[in-house]
Specification:
The complex is a heterodimer of chains A (230) and B (583). Chain A is α+β, with helices and mostly antiparallel strands and 230 residues long. Chain A has six helices and seven strands, in the order ααααααβββββββ.
Chain lengths: 230, 583
């Protein structure tokens, strides 16, 4: 048991060191300030992209939520939506990925500890059942996180940053009228082909568009210099 | 004799045993209630060296279908070519059919009898019918006086790619005209008779050269795909072909026209044989979305726009591609979550007739006109068809597609000008915020803690399970008991066991080692029983002698017990031997 604990501790130290040695992680305040500047300049596409990224890091920050709603509403208005009720603000889980992951990890740690104690010291049956339930919840949280990370890796979220983005069918697909997306619309991306990237909406591919008109939410930190705080 | 220690049966093994028992108690009627056997030739008449296909189908209720072994048929070479199987479950009865096909070839002309042969499954028997294959050196003459050396000048044949199909499954028929004579123009085929079929001609006639027996012919082939519209035994053919044959006629005066032979064009009509096709019904259990499509299909659903203004149409196209009777395949239903005006357009079907089978694409557009802004979803489109190759129904379902609806007529002003005032924006921050990954990947330390905890828990569970199994192991139990006896015998001083206690321990040690019950038996009988249980005669004699000595010492006066040290040592040695023997 002692050796297991030692290995776990060593792994944590190595993992922590590896994290510390990597490039500095993006910060919510930098993204938020860039998004606010973009909003002030009327660049609603970049504003939505920066603030969406900031909300991933600080999902409960009120200032980020306020400005993200402003940017989303402004983008919708630019596309022709007039009624405030029609503005579709995406609801996110009010916890960051790290918070959810640690919550799941603690549940698994507690569940495993209780479960082991229940087997070794013959704890009451109700406590043993509770341990299994906690373990299941912890595993479910981590599996969900893995699935979400996989979806983001395969079809990353992106925001339209140009006024109009024309999405057309590929050369080997049946032709039809192109779909025009407006600045600030959030889509998912598929594979790339030349300078084109596949655009996906609600789980379905709707066509191909030039990737210059889109920013991946993950890559927004690399654009913050353009919107440095005056 | 060694006693058998009952072993614990693992849960998986118990499940298998239960299944086996359940199968054993399945009524015999469910295993082979009905057994039928059917043999069929794809043609009755062939040329020497030309293959004919014999199909033998055995159908049995239950799971046991006997293997098909073709008996030797004198003069015919038989080669197994393929085997197909089918299952059906109807009203709780399993039915299984196996069709084996054999290629038959004869090296000499004659009438070859394929005898009926017996199939057995349990107590049930079935017989195939007797068939006759006519093998000819040349084909019978057709086309009037056009026979010649080495075979007919002209003949027509019909071949089918299969003779047993499901309802609405395609059968490709080849109508072929073989000719060695000069034919003027292209032969013309009449549409062959095929009541009960939907007919699709596969492109224009193909021409080429083909060898039949030892003779080479020009062949003109017309391919037709037939889709049966009812079940039962249906017939295809005969096919009729009209051709203009150029014949040389004898010249009455060898000096006329400088001796050049004269030719004459003769109109002839040839007919093929008629072939039967057995059409079986589709199996039960069709899904709700099944509308009769049989073949191999792929469904594609596309929406022409993801954002639309109110009162403007959104067009949803369903495209069915694949092999099969596309003209008769019904289009899948398309519906949305929004009460909106819906218009279904006409279906357009494009067929490719150039291949070996009929392929194509069927496209249909459905338009939805949303009345007010918001969003709505095109619900998953479901299409089911029967796949005859796999013998099962298949279903394909598209994703839900969300369409955003903007207010009417607001589409032109898509400018991204200065922000309109919707409320105060939050000011910029001066204090640092949280950092982290935007990739939605959980932090590594959290992952290590989470999965490490889970692995530790599973490891402890596994370790405890292994320990529990070890504690339950009867051989280890016996070893532990022998160890305890040896430890007690090894004690010295005041804890040294008395001769009476040593005798009891020695008896118990022998019982544990040889799993024999010798408690209460006289020493002689006990030694005999232990010998039967596997104790060597030498050990048994020593054990008996030591035990008798110990029992004597137990009743000896206390001052005489001092001489019992050798007996105690012998008992300890015996117990050690028992332990080593067991280990």
């Amino acid at each position: 048991m002692r050796s297991v604990l030692l290995i776990a501790a060593a792994t944590l130290v190595v993992a922590g060191g590896a994290h510390a040695a990597a490039a500095p992680p993006p910060r919510a305040d930098v993204l938020y300030n860039a998004g606010t500047t973009a909003l002030d300049r009327g660049d609603v596409g970049p504003a939505v992209a920066f603030l969406t990224a900031a909300a991933r890091l600080e999902p409960r920050a009120r200032d980020i939520q306020v400005n993200l709603k402003q940017a989303t509403a402004e983008a919708a208005r630019a596309r022709g939506v007039e009624s405030q009720e029609e503005i579709d603000v995406v609801r996110e889980v009010p916890l960051s990925t790290a918070e959810i992951a640690w919550a799941g990890a603690i549940l698994l740690l507690v569940g495993a500890g209780l479960g082991i104690a229940a087997r070794v010291t013959r704890l009451p049956r109700s406590l043993a059942a509770a341990a299994v339930a906690v373990l299941i919840v912890g595993v479910a949280i981590h599996v969900w996180l893995l699935a979400r990370a996989h979806a983001e890796a395969v079809h990353p979220e992106a925001v339209v940053v140009v006024r109009e983005l024309t999405v057309e069918r590929g050369p080997d697909e049946p032709s039809r009228a192109p779909v025009v997306l407006g600045a600030g619309e959030r889509v998912r991306l598929g594979p790339t082909r030349g300078g084109q990237v596949e655009i996906r909406v609600a789980g379905a591919a709707i066509g191909w568009a030039p990737h210059e008109g889109l920013w991946r939410v993950q890559e927004t930190p690399s654009y913050t210099a353009r919107y440095a705080t005056p | 004799m060694l006693k058998r220690v009952p072993r614990r049966v693992a849960p998986a093994a118990s499940l298998l045993l239960a299944l086996a028992a359940a199968l054993a108690f399945v009524p015999s009627s469910a295993r082979a209630e009905q057994l039928t056997a059917e043999a069929e030739l794809d043609r009755q008449q062939v040329l020497v060296g030309e293959p004919a296909t014999l199909a033998i189908t055995i159908t049995a209720e239950g799971l046991d279908v006997p293997a098909i072994k073709l008996p030797l048929i004198a003069g015919l070479d038989a080669t197994a070519t393929e085997q197909s199987q089918g299952f059906s479950w109807m009203n709780g009865v399993i039915s299984r059919s196996v069709t084996s096909t054999f290629s038959l070839r004869a090296n000499a002309p004659g009438d070859y009898v394929i005898p009926s042969f017996l199939i057995r499954s349990g107590k049930k028997e079935a017989k195939t019918q007797q068939l006759v294959l006519h093998v000819r050196a040349t084909m019978p003459r057709q086309g009037g006086r056009l026979g010649g050396e080495g075979g007919p000048e002209l003949f027509a044949r019909l071949t089918l790619d299969r003779t047993r199909v499901y309802w609405n499954e395609g059968v490709t028929a080849r109508f072929t005209l073989y000719t060695r004579a000069r034919v003027e123009g292209a032969p013309a085929w009449d549409p062959p008779d095929a009541p009960g079929f939907w007919t699709e001609v596969l492109g224009p006639a193909r021409t080429g050269r083909i060898r039949v027996g030892d003779v080479e012919y020009d062949a003109t082939e017309m391919r037709v795909e037939y889709f049966p519209t009812r079940t039962g035994r249906l017939r295809i053919g005969p096919g009729r072909v009209h051709a203009q044959v150029v014949r040389q006629v004898p010249v009455p005066d060898p000096w006329s026209a400088l001796g050049m032979p004269e030719t004459q064009v003769e109109d002839i009509e040839l007919t093929t044989e008629q072939l039967a096709v057995d059409v079986v019904a589709l199996p039960k259990g069709a899904p709700a979305a099944f509308r009769g499509a049989v073949g191999s299909y792929d469904l594609d659903v596309t929406v022409d726009r993801a954002v639309v203004h109110a009162r403007e149409p959104v067009n949803v196209a369903t495209v069915l591609k694949g092999e099969g009777n596309l003209a008769a395949a019904s289009d899948p239903d398309v519906s949305s979550t929004l009460p909106s005006r819906r218009y279904a357009g006409a279906a357009s079907t494009s067929l490719q007739r150039s291949g070996l089978r009929l392929k194509g694409e069927r496209r249909r557009e459905t338009s939805f006109v949303p009345e007010r802004p918001g969003s709505f979803a095109i619900l998953p489109v479901r299409f089911s068809w029967f796949d005859p190759e796999q013998g099962r129904y298949r279903t394909q379902v598209s994703d839900t597609i969300t369409v955003r609806v903007l207010p009417p007529g607001s589409g032109s002003g898509l400018g991204a000008g200065p922000a309109a005032v919707l409320g105060p924006t939050a000011p910029r921050r001066s204090h640092p915020g949280a950092g982290g990954s935007l990739a939605l990947v959980p932090p590594l330390p959290a992952d290590v803690v989470a999965w490490g905890s889970l692995l530790a828990y599973l490891g402890v569970l596994t370790g405890l399970g292994v320990r529990d199994r070890s504690l339950r192991d009867p051989r280890r139990k016996r070893l532990r008991e022998l160890d305890a006896i040896a430890r007690e015998l090894a004690q010295t001083g005041t804890a040294t066991p008395t001769p009476a206690r040593t005798a009891v321990l020695l008896r118990r040690a022998a019982e544990v080692r040889y799993t024999a019950d010798v408690e209460g038996l006289p020493v002689g009988d006990a030694a005999a029983r232990l010998t039967v249980s596997g104790m060597q005669a030498e050990d048994a004699a020593r054990w008996k002698e030591t035990l008798e000595r110990l029992e004597q010492l137990a009743y000896a006066p206390p001052d005489a017990r001092g001489a019992g040290g050798a007996a105690l040592q012998a008992a300890a040695d015996l117990v050690r031997r028992f332990r080593e023997g067991l280990a």
